[in-house]
Design brief:
With 107 residues, the protein is mainly beta. It has one domain. The protein has no helices and 7 strands. The strands form 2 sheets. A 5-stranded antiparallel sheet has the order 5-1-4-6-7, with no helix packed on it. The chain has a two-stranded antiparallel sheet with strand order 2-3. A hairpin with a 4-residue loop joins strand 6 and strand 7. The two termini are 30 Å apart. The relative contact order is 0.31.
Length: 107
C-alpha cells in the first residue's frame, strides 16, 4: 500500500460531466461534494504542516487523478469527461479558457 497526501484547504474537485447544446458545445462542470485533492502519492510519508495529512491508499492511485472523499474517508477516481460532441460548424475545439486538464483541480 502507498500513502496519499491530502490537501483539504483547496476548492472541491470539479470535472467535466457533460456538454451544452451550444455550437460549439461548451463543457458542463460538476463539483464533487466533500472532496479533497490528492496532492501526492508516496511509498513512505514525511512530515507535513497542517491541514495536510496522509491516508493509506491503493498502489494504483495517482495524484490529481483521484480525490479523497471526506464523508466516506475513501479515495475515489475523478470521473473521465464524456466525449465532446461534434460542432455543427465543424469547430470542435474547446475555448482556451475552458481547455483545462480535467485531472487537476480547478480554482
Amino acid at each position: 500500500m502507498k500513502q496519499a497526501l491530502i490537501s483539504p484547504n483547496e476548492e472541491p474537485i470539479k470535472y467535466i460531466s457533460g456538454w451544452t447544446q451550444d455550437d460549439p458545445p461548451q463543457p458542463i462542470y460538476t463539483v464533487i461534494l466533500n472532496s479533497c485533492r490528492v496532492a501526492e502519492v508516496m511509498d513512505q510519508t514525511f512530515e507535513v504542516a497542517p491541514p495536510l495529512f496522509w491516508v493509506e491508499c491503493a498502489n494504483d492511485v495517482k495524484a490529481d487523478k483521484w480525490y479523497y472523499d471526506t464523508e466516506n474517508q475513501t479515495i475515489d477516481i475523478i470521473p473521465l469527461p464524456p466525449t465532446q460532441p461534434s460542432s455543427l460548424s465543424g469547430d470542435t475545439n474547446i475555448p482556451p479558457e475552458n481547455n483545462i486538464d480535467v485531472n487537476q483541480t480547478i480554482s
